[in-house]
């Protein structure tokens, strides 16, 4: 895998949430359509910031980019997360590889009316490249990563697969 061969934001988010989830997703197991949490997130995305348009980079879909090359991502979560920041850094990396002089990123949490700035500098780029390599390593493994403790799987659309509930 190279940096522009289909590694999207979902891959990064799943890596940091649960490497097993990433491994399964990369092999085509995608139960998200049955998840109420995913449906809720899609509704929040579709009904907030409606004047913005997605930037489609193939596997990666950026919510929007504003003047000055600021990458924006909307999340339905009620709590900021490091995996959200990593997802935005990944988008910044993808755009920079296309020659865009990215300024920074912003994660929007409309349910709690909060935003989180995500810096984009040499350190952030290294983090994004490292995270991308970790994702490639997980995807390339012969076997899935071990299950997380059941308590960390609440709300995960892959829970039935991993735990047989």
Please explain how this structure is put together.
With 165 residues, the chain is an alpha+beta fold. The chain has one domain (9-163): Alpha-Beta Complex (Lambda Exonuclease, Chain A), CATH 3.90.320.10. It contains six helices and six strands. The protein has helices spanning 9-17, 19-26, 36-47, 82-97, 122-140, 159-163; strands at residues 55-57, 60-62, 64-66, 70-74, 104-109, 114-119. It is globular, with a radius of gyration of 16 Å. Residues 125-135 have a biased composition (Basic and acidic residues). InterPro entries: Dna2/Cas4_DUF83, PDDEXK-like_dom_sf. Pfam families: Cas_Cas4 (PF01930).
Distance between the termini: 34 Å
- Count every beta strand, where a strand is a DSSP E run of 2 or more residues: 6
What sequence of helices (H) and strands (E) makes up the elements? Answer: HHHEEEEHEEHH
CATH fold label: Lambda Exonuclease, Chain A
Q: What is the C-alpha radius of gyration, as a whole number of Å?
A: 16 Å
* Spatial strand order of the main sheet: 3-4-5-6
Q: Mean pLDDT, rounded to whole units?
A: 86
Overall form:
globular
The CATH architecture is: Alpha-Beta Complex
* Beta-strand content bin: 15-25%
* Number of domains as seen in the coordinates: 1
Q: Which residue ranges are poorly predicted, with pLDDT under 50 across at least 5 consecutive positions?
A: none
Which structural class best describes the helix and strand composition? alpha+beta
Helix percent band:
40-55%
The number of helical elements comes to 6
The profile of the biggest β sheet is: 4 strands, mixed
Query: What is the CATH level 1 assignment?
Result: Alpha Beta
